[in-house]
């Protein structure tokens, strides 16, 4: 059976930075799912971005 190789690029909108994800979640109170819907990415990806921002602040 032949194999198919697919390149997966994780792209995000220009304003979708880890710091902005954390700010919108913590300060504004939006859920990860709502932020993801606004940015066109999944809520779990937004959660990963916020986690990255939290870890960089320590």
UniProtKB/TrEMBL annotation:
<dbReference type="InterPro" id="IPR013324">
    <property type="entry name" value="RNA_pol_sigma_r3/r4-like"/>
</dbReference>
<protein>
    <recommendedName>
        <fullName>RNA polymerase sigma-70 region 4 domain-containing protein</fullName>
    </recommendedName>
</protein>
């Amino acid at each position: 059976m032949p194999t198919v190789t697919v390149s997966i690029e994780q792209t995000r909108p220009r304003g979708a930075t880890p710091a902005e994800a954390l700010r919108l979640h913590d300060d504004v109170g939006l859920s990860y799912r709502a932020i993801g819907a606004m940015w066109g990415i999944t809520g779990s990806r937004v959660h990963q971005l916020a986690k990255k921002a939290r870890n960089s602040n320590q």
